[in-house]
Design a protein that fits this description.
The chain has 557 residues and is α/β, with parallel strands linked by helices. Helix content is 54%, strand content 18%. Among the domains are: 1-124 and 455-511, 3-Layer(aba) Sandwich (Rossmann fold), CATH 3.40.50; 184-339, no CATH class. Helix 7 (204-218) crosses helix 11 (295-315) and helix 8 (220-235) packs antiparallel against helix 10 (264-290). The two termini are 22 Å apart.
């Protein structure tokens, strides 16, 4: 619900704060007082175009504010959460227009783009009377309204699910075709790569062992000679080997041990060292026996390692990653070789999905046709009550684009014949602003409860009518106000008397400058205002009595 509007230095309004309540609020005033300025302010607050002309003469900028109260779960509140612009249940819109024509917009005190402001406000406010600001003139909105009127939610969900399923299969087929599944050259290339990789690629552990074997084979002579020298040094025949020297040391220690028993532990250590030297000599002997001085074996290892490094350079990866590359190539080859069968499976599934989509879309189209006829009848009846003798048609046509659409296979265009005998024309091409506003009122009343927009504004909805028709318009607006918040600009007392709330716009001259004030009328002031609208400047007892009777009659509705 729109709780209030604040306007400062806007056109001929220096400052005004207007509280708004639920139901239908009427806005009245003398001709030229600026009744539509509040609507103009709302147009700017909903993302409309601005220019320097809206700034009051002599002011640096115009400021416009609107505060809404949003119930939990409302589409507007969900949008704010998605955009990270939410602020509890409140919503504050702000627009500043400078004298140079530049403007800035804010949502909940945070800067935003006009695109964001417009997108949000399509969920909040519907303004009738100005073509460029009516969502009802958009064919997408018309189709949405028809579906809500016909309660097509289940059919729409079925069409949406079938559409997504078909699109998913089509994407899978496109990806399959784009992967080169039908290219025999690609298959042969992958087979060649896999054969080459399978021959030479090694796991990380196997590659490490190959490197070690290659290093050992390339240094076999040096290792053999060195290990032989070490063996001689440890356990050779001459008296300078480590074991011979250790034996001499043990003999001397035995002599000393006869003199001091505390040296016996040292003797045990020398015995242990002799055992270690013996094992070292045996290990070196076995190592020499295992060393292979075969030049052909070394050449084989050298060639294998060279092939691995060359293959790694070819694929621009490290040698240790060749095994993973081989697995990846094998998987791609398996996928491509199996793609033919997968393609057949997808084509078969697609045929089923297309039938399901067509069945769901045809069912939705049939339901829409029935709902459209009911809507035609309901809107035409209300149009006749509003002194528009023509008829309304919700015309359904097949979509030109045959690709699956989540909205179904048809489109709608709201057509109107304002007068008998004249052909129906698209609602968006109806020229008269007041006539268009009454047509919109008829559609909104006929689809009451179908449109989720909580605030509806009607500018000059009663233009060009009077008498009984004016009262019918007022009743329809009041009926709409029972389910939505309605703000209407009117110059007819029959409409003004039916409002739940009443605002009066007055123009005055202060210090040589024209200014407009907006006043919330009390019950007594409403009698005076309706009486003025009935009889002009001079109010008579008869006018006041008639005005009071009209207001009392409206209060009983």
């Amino acid at each position: 619900m729109l709780k209030s509007i604040f306007v400062k230095d806007f056109a001929i309004i220096d400052r005004a704060e207007v509280p708004l309540g639920a139901g239908m609020t009427v806005l009245t005033g003398e001709t030229g007082a600026g009744k539509s300025l509040l609507v103009d302010a709302l147009l700017l607050l909903t993302g409309g175009r601005s220019d320097a002309g809206v700034v009051r003469h002599g002011a640096e900028r115009a400021e416009l504010h609107a505060e809404f109260e949003l119930p939990a779960g409302s589409p507007a509140r969900q949008w704010l959460v998605e955009q990270e612009l939410d602020d509890d249940e409140a919503l504050r819109l702000r627009r500043i227009v400078r004298a140079d024509g530049n403007s800035r917009a804010y949502i909940n005190d945070r800067p935003c783009s006009l695109t964001q402001m417009r997108e949000l406000c399509t969920l909040l406010v519907e303004i009738h009377g100005q073509h460029e600001h009516q969502a009802l003139l958009q064919r997408v909105q018309q189709l949405r309204l028809l579906d809500r009127f016909g309660k097509h939610e289940e059919l729409l969900a079925r069409v949406l699910g079938a559409c997504r399923q078909q699109q998913s299969i089509e994407r899978a087929l496109a990806e399959l075709d784009g992967a080169g599944s039908g290219d025999p050259d690609r298959v042969e290339f992958l087979k060649f790569q896999l054969k080459e990789l399978k021959r030479d690629a090694l796991s990380a552990d196997a590659l490490q062992k190959l490197v070690e074997d290659h290093k050992r084979a390339s240094n076999a002579s040096q290792l053999l000679e060195g290990s032989a020298k070490l063996g001689e040094l440890i356990d050779g025949d001459d008296s300078q080997s480590l074991r011979s020297l250790l034996a001499d040391a043990r003999g001397e220690l035995e002599k000393l041990g006869t003199l001091d028993d505390s040296l016996n532990p040292v003797l045990e250590l020398l015995d242990a060292a002799d055992i270690q030297f013996s094992e070292a000599a045996d290990t070196l002997s076995r190592y020499r026996d295992r060393l292979d001085l075969d030049p052909q074996q070394f050449q084989k290892l050298d060639q294998q390692l060279a092939r691995i490094h060359e293959l790694a350079r070819k694929h621009r990866i490290a040698p240790k990653d060749l095994a993973d590359k081989a697995e990846a190539v094998e998987q791609e080859l398996l996928r491509i070789e199996g793609a033919s069968g997968e393609r057949e499976r997808l084509l078969s599934t697609l045929a089923v999905a297309q039938k399901e989509y067509q069945a769901a879309a045809q069912a939705l189209a049939a339901a829409r046709a029935g709902s459209a006829r009911k809507l035609d009848s309901a809107v035409t009846r209300i149009l006749n009550e509003l002194a528009i003798a023509g008829r309304f048609v919700a015309a359904l046509t097949p979509r030109a684009d045959l690709t699956p659409n989540p909205s179904g296979i048809d489109e709608v265009e709201f057509l109107v014949s304002p007068n008998p005998g004249q052909p129906e024309r698209p609602l968006r091409k109806v020229a008269s602003g007041g006539e268009l506003a009454r047509i919109a009122l008829a559609i909104e009343v006929a689809t009451l409860g179908s449109d989720e927009v909580p605030v509806m504004v009607f500018d000059e909805v009663d233009s060009g009518i009077g008498g009984a028709t004016a009262e019918v318009v007022g009743r329809k607006l009041r009926e709409l106000g029972g389910a939505r918040q309605v703000l209407t600009v009117t110059h007819l007392p029959q409409v003004a008397a039916l409002g739940h709330g009443h605002l009066r716009v007055a123009k005055s001259s202060v210090d040589g400058q024209t200014r407009t004030q907006i006043e919330v009328l009390t019950a007594a002031a409403r009698v005076d205002e309706v009486a003025r609208m009935l009889g002009g400047i001079e109010q008579t007892a008869e006018n006041r009595a008639a005005a009071k009777a009209m207001l009392e009659s409206a209060a009983k509705r």
